[in-house]
């Protein structure tokens, strides 16, 4: 195991919640314990109460219908996500409250009140309908982090179209695969996006993706960057032109609680990304509840979740969770080091951000850039800081608390996944002491256990596999178009429980530490990448005969991609070109950090690649473990003297 995990295992610090914070916190330890116990003992009462805080056009008949592994929550209830996120607040007289404070990478600032955002969403819903989009249709969204991405999601939700957001950093072929898999009829994109000052040609990418995505009939194009693009008559429509013609009145459509809200693709241990399907009612109730509880939301908070809306964190804690709670969100379009590593602190100081939610990889980059950068800014508006996406090493945690949180803000480490939809494990701020590097206790209704492969629970302090023993409202409902994969991956590995794919341990206080993936999934800068996905990209290059990809611990990214490739006979491998090739096939985030050009891979006699040894080679470690099952143990010796490129 890496040094970082080792450090977590030996971490024994426990930091009491600050008294001031605790005094006005939503939950005390006793309240949490009582509610948590109720959520397990009497889930019907617990979840009915949580759901009753939202608007339903028709109330449900039954809280949960569980036919393992399929759940239906709030059965026969009818509701609308956008109505609950917008209309509900405007009707209650909160229309003048700010919903979004957006800052572009170039410094432009735009704000939307709830009333303004509602108007834009109503307009956009009318635009979608005028383009023929109906409830149940899929709409792919390939946009930079601009207000239109939020408007697009809510407009889809308003009419019952299922959105599928593809991160704007993904390549043409990744985009085409996702449009095709979802059978989307409409794509919402922009002329171009900004990243570190440079333009990303989104529309040109979309045009190329459309060539291999026949389901696609229309494109709605936001003019973001003034880039020259080709508009195909009859297929492409400018967002601003369509919006200018659209009416600002639109009735939210009552939708069944199980109506598909969104599909979001994520990597698994096979080559093809999975479309994780989330539905309306349960996801909405979980997001409303967890955002309020975990972030201890107050009416005057400015919540900044730094994730792009291309990832689940952005869906849940930039868009849906905060807006359901009537909160104000900060959104920043660009990179954390644009123009320099002070950008986040400058944003916090100028806009008075009170809650910051970011990823360990970002925290480690800030740490590396030096304390003197954040120290130049006034960060006293912050009152709570959070972390998500990968294990956070105690050193980074302590730095975050001290330098960013001024030793005053509680730090919450939150464990969850694209599949879980909402936060599953954390230490409620103000209620419990936190332990650096440890997510903590289960959220309401979450029933975790640490088990062996056979499903036997392990004792306190022992490592095992993290499972969830009962369904929860925001759980994924299936893998889009592949229910069999859903059953096998999540409910088939360990009998009758949800298998998360992570290794974890629980201490004697019940705090759970999640240590990382136990499958062939890498976590690079908080983003999930399947090793097989990268391997398929590598072997699709004519010079590569065979490839194996492993992760290597990295001080900033958590983990980085290392590839071992065998050249095709008669070809030479150019590492720089191969990196480019992977970026083109998947996206820049999958680009290998190191490439070993090898003459053989360590395989068992039955032909299975022993990745364990490759991980050791990649990390420059001694080879340990039984090498006797290898067909040719000398392969390892040769690999150890092969330079990484
Ligand atoms: C995987 C899920 C959840 C939003 C962002 C990532 C890892 C996530 C933590 C944490 C340790 C974590 C797990 C998980 N992970 N949060 N607090 N501590 N590991 O969503 O892309 O679906 O990735 O991220 O390995 O399985 P995702």
Automatic annotation (TrEMBL):
Its EC number is 6.2.1.1. Residues 533-608 form the AMP-binding enzyme C-terminal domain. CoA binds at residues 195-198, 313, 337, 525. Residues 91-472 form the AMP-dependent synthetase/ligase domain. ATP binds at residues 389-391, 413-418, 502, 517, 528. One of its GO terms (molecular function) is ATP binding. It holds the Pfam family AMP-binding_C. The modification N6-acetyllysine is found at residue 608. Residues 32-85 form the Acetyl-coenzyme A synthetase N-terminal domain. GO terms for biological process: acetyl-CoA biosynthetic process from acetate. InterPro entries: Ac_CoA_lig, ACAS_N, AMP-bd_C, AMP-bd_C_sf, AMP-binding_CS, AMP-dep_synth/lig_dom, ANL_N_sf. Acetylated. Deacetylation by the SIR2-homolog deacetylase activates the enzyme. It comes from the Bacteria. GO terms for cellular component: cytosol. Its cofactor is Mg(2+). Catalyzes the conversion of acetate into acetyl-CoA (AcCoA), an essential intermediate at the junction of anabolic and catabolic pathways. AcsA undergoes a two-step reaction. In the first half reaction, AcsA combines acetate with ATP to form acetyl-adenylate (AcAMP) intermediate. In the second half reaction, it can then transfer the acetyl group from AcAMP to the sulfhydryl group of CoA, forming the product AcCoA. This is Acetyl-coenzyme A synthetase.
